[in-house]
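Structure first, sequence second, as always.
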């Protein structure tokens, strides 16, 4: 399934935010910040990446379901989408 901006807008926004957070974590490490603070921020980055991935899978599910509702062939099977979902878990 090919992605377009309309399908992934929120996921891209989440990824841009995570990108900024990751840059902050790198700067914290380079500055010798407290380990607990660094790990807290790293956990936030990890969660942001996970949420972006789950958002993409959810968008794919909606897209495939809509195609089926219109009587069209879905771009991905439910098994393929499930496999992608489980890859994130």
């Amino acid at each position: 399934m090919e992605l377009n901006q309309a399908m992934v807008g929120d996921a891209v926004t989440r990824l841009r935010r995570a990108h900024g957070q990751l840059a902050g974590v790198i700067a914290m490490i380079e500055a010798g910040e407290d380990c607990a603070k660094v790990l807290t921020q790293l956990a936030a980055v990890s969660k942001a990446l996970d949420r972006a991935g789950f958002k993409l899978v959810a968008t794919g599910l909606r897209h495939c379901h809509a195609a089926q509702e219109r009587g069209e062939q879905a771009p991905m099977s439910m098994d393929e989408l499930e496999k992608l979902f489980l890859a994130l878990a």
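Margin note: The chain is about 80% helix and 0% strand.
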